[in-house]
Amino acid sequence: MNAQIDRGFVRIAEGQVHYRSLPALPGAQGARPLVMLHLSPASSRSLEPLMAALRGAGHEGAILAPDTLGNGDSARPAHADADIAYFAGSTVRMADALGLGAFDLYGSHTGARIACEIAVSRPDRVGALVMSGITEYDDATQALYTESYVPRVEPDEYGRQMVWGFHFVRDQHLFAPYFRREAAFRLAKDVPPPEVLHEGALDILKALDTYHIPYLAAFGYRTYARAALVRAPALLMQPEWGPPKLNAAAADIAAAMRDGRVAAPTGGLEGYAASVAAFLAACAAALPTGEQIPC
């Protein structure tokens, strides 16, 4: 299935935005496309398995997954201090350049914050919203993460940035946050195979001088206040592999929303995709006006 995922570029003011896509199946061309936004510091490459699983779960509409500005093969953000509102706006401008009207949204971690902000700022464009790994940091945690989470790393004559990139990606699968290498912060999940870690390391090395910008934007996002303004029906995911604190935050954020609900699917990626696909199918009758329609 992954071999059927196409890649392309579209130009906006900052430069070219790279994206991955699955076309709509015959007979589903009129369905709202699904725009998927990845977590930091990865690229849309990280969403390929879920894109394929969604198609396998019966999602027939088009799926589009861009690399966030500053990540993957997309252009760098226009500002080093860009916030989530900026990334939301650039994503909508990308959708405009591709000729998209209304669309459904899926976001993971940083991508979830961007998706949330798009739903708030452009309710006329968003049909249904799915978010995973979203939370809000208090001032002390934001300060800690700003100081410790995103070190500035530059290439040197010994190539030490390459070793750092691999371990940065690997440690994020071992601890949450990755820099707290203590038993209390150990994640209860398997470390991905070396091939997956290699791909993640390539993504961050490619964006070595800009990967921190989306991260810093995510750390400062006021999720609860913004989520309360979302008008679209929203599903907050509690994946089996998610850190307990993030899964707990999903329920709290859903409760703060006008039409939020949670899903805690089992069955690995296939079960996760089935839950997302079922929600999107139930919301398929929602009009592209941004009005809240039960699903």
How would you sum up this structure, described in words?
The protein is α/β, with parallel strands linked by helices. It has one domain (2-154, 212-282): 3-Layer(aba) Sandwich (Rossmann fold), CATH 3.40.50. Helix content is 38%, strand content 15%. It has helices spanning 48-56, 84-97, 110-121, 139-148, 160-172, 194-206, 212-219, 223-227, 244-256, 268-282; strands spanning 6-12, 15-22, 34-37, 63-66, 103-108, 126-132, 234-237, 260-263. An 8-stranded mixed β-sheet has the order 1-2-4-3-5-6-7-8, sandwiched between helices. β5, α3 and β6 (126-132) form a beta-alpha-beta unit. It is globular.
What is the number of domains?
A: 1
For the CA atoms, what is the radius of gyration? 18 Å
CATH superfamily: Alpha/Beta hydrolase fold, catalytic domain
- CATH topology, by name, is Rossmann fold
The quaternary structure here is single chain
Structural class: alpha/beta
Report the portion of residues in β strands: 5-15%
Total count of helical runs of at least 4 residues: 10
What overall geometry do the principal axes of the alpha carbons give?
globular
Give, in order, the helices and strands: EEEHEHEHEHHHHHEHEH
Question: Count of DSSP E strands?
Answer: 8
